[in-house]
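Page 37, top half.
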Amino acid sequence: MSKPEFTITCVATDRTRLFATGEVDVPGCKIGMNFSEPEAIFREALNNQSFELTELSMSSHIITTARGDAHYIAVPVFLSRAFRHSAIFIRSGAGISSLADLKGAKIGVPEYQQTAAMWVRGMMADEGVAASDVTWHVGGLNAPSAGERIAIKLPEDIVVKPIDTDDTLDEMLLTGRLDAIISPRVPASLLRGDPRIARLYPDLRAAEVDYYHKTGFFPIMHALALRKDIAEAHPWLPEALFNAFSKAKRMRQDEMALGNVLRISLPWAAHDYADTMAITGGDPWPYGFERNRAELEAMTRYMHADGTASRKVAPEELFHPSTLRLVD
């Protein structure tokens, strides 16, 4: 009997390219890779369920799970993680120097439901600024966009306004119509060196390390997910995927430790690797449900508080049952 064939649609990273090169396989099946960017992947997966196996926004997955119309089930393989202190941009001279100063602000986001924005709202909430304390403006960062990837329904006390179709968040921040932007991508004006825009945290690394020490969180952005019909037809597949992606992650981490020839084009990569391992206790990118339970609990709590999730989701609901016991 021939092996079943599946295609994984995801972002090309050191954690996923090994499947394209054939250095890592998934026992019991043949895997093809379809590389794309997150915005395109999520819209297609969530609206059309086009992909069998896909990288999926955790915030959108929590939203659909909460309301009972999720077409995908996740594996606790977190394909994207990122500290989001670097995603906060402010208008220079607006008197904003901390998260607490964002109370009453007008804040732009590419999508209210975006996982990056969720994490920043969670950080704000921990500093006493609720989602209802802010007016949210949704639209394209540097060019007009289509807005939210899927429809969301929010409580009446949370105000979210779409911006004009020919406007951008960057231009609104420059002209004082916004006080801040939360975006994983950088506003074009800041890249040009425009002094009217600045980052909230001038020393990003220090802020992120301090956050990690306080919380233990390296914020989860995206997970590997299977369409539910695929998981039902091949119940062995979620565990096989977890084991294969864990192997790929370990291979790339071991490669970064090599010092004879630099494997990535950063001159101080070896020093950064050593520093990172010291800070994180030897594994900066943990997979597995139990290892990430506290962080997942915080995510579901933040999303219920900011109105995106219609109920408080139990973290276990997000993942295929066969993967909950797996340890990386």
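Page 37, bottom half:
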Amino acid sequence: MDLNTVVDVRDARRREPWRDGDAWLGGGTYLFSEPQPHLRRLVDLGRMGWEPLARRPDGSLEIAATCTVAQLSRYGRRFLDAPAAPLFEQCCRAFLASFKIWNMATVGGNLCNGLPAGPMISLTAALDGVCLLLAQDGSTREVKVTDFIRGAGVKDLAEGELLRSVTLPGRALECRTAFRQASLYGLGRSGALVIGTLDPADGSLAVTVTAATTRPFRFWFPLPPTAGRLRAEIDTAVSGAEWFDDIHGLPEWRRHMALRLAEQVRRELVTTTATTTTDIAEEDAR
């Protein structure tokens, strides 16, 4: 879509004062998807030269905000040697998008849209990701993904502030993972997406609920909880208004599916492989 109110596009490498009507341009898949009458200038991040993905000496993985979905998918499938690697492709596949979008849409853009169904939010929240934010004066700050997204479309971003990258700790990448997604339609937007991670170092379990809620909720347990405790923790933490309500699912249905999927990932991670395969197949058939 043409943005006929935009009168200038600036290279982000050229520092200029931020002004009303400015917007960061990454992949542009959202900006060009609908009218943006408030915009006057785009600040293009395309030539910043940030390395899309970098594994650090401490085992952590830094994902640049400009990393595309296609690059993330390829990295998870071909280059990431870690137990959590399959989760990258599962979350990329949760996008309701064509291959064209995959090659343009960025991880940072998906987070900064702050939509409940954003699968990059799901991935980075589940793996305990930390956002690096860059202000106009050059100062930086860090905030966890679970705190960065404050509500449906609401982010912890000041005027002109930039999401530079998201870092996933090495310990999170060593976790066993379980993934469940539900939609009202076969190829529809996620109505509920639940990810479980089991830390082999200390046996702790985390269950992250997204898409069904207005913001990501990550529940951490020092030892795997019972089904009753997990259900109670979710119901206690998520208030009625925080179950998302739109055309892709009513709050009551989203809550039902989130609780159901949370129990499935809990059982998959705390039982043996043989038991898990049988139990989950029986549960899915009911």
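Margin note: The mean pLDDT is 93.
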